[in-house]
Amino acid sequence: TTKDKLRLLLAHGWHGINFSVEKAHEAAPSTHGIADVLDLVGRANPGIYDPEASVYCIEAGARLLERYDLDLLYLSTTDFVQHKWAPGEPEANAFYARLDRFIGALDSQDIILGITADHGMNAKTNADGAPKVQFIETQLVAAGIAEARVILPITDPYVVHHGALGSYATVYIDDAHTTRATAILRAIPGVEQVLSREQAVATYQLPPDRIGELVVLADQDTVLGRTPDWHELADVAEGLRSHGGLHEGVVPMICNRPLTDQYAELLASGQARNWDLFDFLCNGVLA
């Protein structure tokens, strides 16, 4: 992986090779199944906010394939570049050129290769370039719903990416206040949907024990926040690109082998999900 937080999740109970770009210099055989990651790649690992971090991840994967006879290899990049630069900007183009080089190195090794993403990305800014954000916890408390607590799942330690601002939020409030809170939230400019827990579970297959009484989705241009003081707004003062709403749901699914008719039809239907990629690669490619 690129971020170590994801490696910790995925490697729980795993005894094979696992390491992150972020902490590649700390890799040890007892915990990571490998020790010499920097020697493997041939250079020091970049910082997590360096566009090269994702490139390093893919390059490390190519080097692992050269060294080991692997049955399965999972590589996960970070979306720092996509948060900071739009497609076509020089920085984005330079990044994808570098990434493409090492994706080619993977493809050249006679493997079944699949590529997908967890979400898309859109600009979330006002005309002056500042983030277009609605601080919904502030607004609920100001309206008298003092116990309101907003959770933003985009939140993680890497706030330079997005300032913990995304287009999805879940709201924890007393049951007695859900009707009033729903009306308040629906009246906020930029809010596209407000759903009850039951509606969110039925519509978006969300886990009922991991969401609040309400789920809020913003429109394509808007992000949701808690309170102004809670966010690192200085990190996104010059513009914000983020995700979390309905408008970042379309993602690519790329395979380097032809698909069987059954799987080609599924892909063309638009009903495949990114988590289906593993099934596609194991069961849906032509020999």
Entry keywords:
Gyrase A, domain 2, 287 residues, four-stranded antiparallel beta sheet, 3 domains, 12 helices
Helices and strands, with pairings:
Elements: H1 4-10, H2 29-32, H3 37-41, H4 52-67, H5 80-84, H6 90-107, E1 114-116, E2 122-123, E3 133-135, H7 136-142, E4 149-151, H8 159-162, E5 168-172, H9 178-186, E6 191-196, H10 197-204, E7 214-218, E8 223-225, E9 241-242, E10 253-255, H11 261-269, H12 277-283
Parallel strand pairs: 3-8
Antiparallel strand pairs: 1-10, 2-9, 4-5, 5-7, 6-7
Helix pairs in contact: 4-6
What does this protein look like?
- The chain has 287 residues and is an alpha+beta fold.
- The chain has 3 domains: 4-111, no CATH class; 133-247, 2-Layer Sandwich (Gyrase A, domain 2), CATH 3.30.1360.110; 255-287, no CATH class.
- Helix content is 34%, strand content 12%.
- The protein contains 12 helices and 10 strands.
- It has helices at residues 4-10, 29-32, 37-41, 52-67, 80-84, 90-107, 136-142, 159-162, 178-186, 197-204, 261-269, 277-283, and strands at residues 114-116, 122-123, 133-135, 149-151, 168-172, 191-196, 214-218, 223-225, 241-242, 253-255.
